[in-house]
Amino acid sequence: MTKHSRQRDAVYQNLCMRTDHPTAEELYLSLKAEMPALSLATVYRNLAMLEGESKIIRIGSGGTARYDGNISPHYHLTCLECGGVHDIFMDDAGLCKAASEHFGGRILSHTVMFTGYCPHCSEKIG
Amino acid sequence: MTKHSRQRDAVYQNLCMRTDHPTAEELYLSLKAEMPALSLATVYRNLAMLEGESKIIRIGSGGTARYDGNISPHYHLTCLECGGVHDIFMDDAGLCKAASEHFGGRILSHTVMFTGYCPHCSEKIG
DNA sequence: ATAATAATGATAACAATTATCGATATTGTA
DNA sequence: TACAATATCGATAATTGTTATCATTATTAT
To answer: Is B112 a residue whose pLDDT tops 70?
Structure first.
């Protein structure tokens, strides 16, 4: 039986409030302000729990994991200049369907990570 | 100046020979048979070097990194049943171009990871 | 052959994440 | 409301994947 917890609510709310795809530690530091007793392990625990319930998404961007409270289908771009992870909202152009046809099997979902420069950095660099 | 090394050749050859997208440790164990003195650190070092030269690809599939000696553009699928990472060769359907239009900025590349069941497991499960 | 130095093997260090455990908070039942 | 059962917590140890260090070895140009 899964019980309610203030900490889990806080993690979920904080994550949903922002669009910067924070790491577990960034979330922890942000929450620590209003919840001084919070433990990093609790953040990890609840992130895993929320991911299990499909309420959030984990972005396995290489080294350290980032999290996203927006579960509507969208893609991400890692900016080579500022290092940030930005959202790209667009149609999947039937990618899963096309892949199924090429590959066989059953394809349930997909994630796309783009690499390049975000609009801001792109302009800055010229 | 970068020198030639038997170990780097062995890593590269072994990786190119297979299609199972091994982890660094899997490569290490495989090579250890013919090269008993090999060190895991050497495998990591050379994988990083080869990736830097764009001769191989690192697949940041969540926790532990996997590597691919096939650098022709293609996608991957993680099978929920067997846990394997399989290749999917298909056209990118102008994904980068579409994303650029939606997002602005400059998009250089992208990676796609599908999740589902490979043909073999899909049939097995029914 | 020799000198210069890149690469190696062994292992320590590191960072991110997970497991452990006694204490605390939440929830269903009385 | 009180109580028992237990999920979750905070603190921290342990684990894991990866990188850094360093003395030794292999490769390359001369």
So the answer is: yes
